[in-house]
Amino acid sequence: MKLLDALVEQRIHEAAARGEFNDLPGAGAPLQFDDDFLVPEEVRVANRILKNAGFVPPAVEQLRALRGLQEEFDRVTDPGARCQLQARMLALDMALESLRGGGCVPHEYRRRIAERLSERAQSRVTLEAK
């Protein structure tokens, strides 16, 4: 990948040296970056309405929850509790991946994996409590 990056950088520098970027539209004007400039216009309007109403996208809520679980995981020393937290973090991570539209593992299979990990974590906690 670094070779490809170097090739791209080299071609950009060569084009700039030839002056190919001098007459581009908006040349010299400051860039206007929005926090959602990569989001399609029709989705952007809906997101702004929801944001102004105090709602956040599900992915943002899940990222916050995942960060909270990670912080809790870093503080906890009990192996059973850490296992449960790992299962919850995995489930949240898989949910985030499905929101992104990625992942090659079907949703139902991911859900069953998360449930199985939770069951194992719970059984470990139960065994350690005895």
Automatic annotation (TrEMBL):
Q: Where are the transmembrane segments?
A: none
Listed Pfam families:
DJC28_CD
Domain of life where this protein originates: Bacteria
Q: Which residues form the DnaJ homologue subfamily C member 28 conserved domain?
A: 7-74
Name listed for the protein in its UniProt record:
DnaJ homologue subfamily C member 28 conserved domain-containing protein
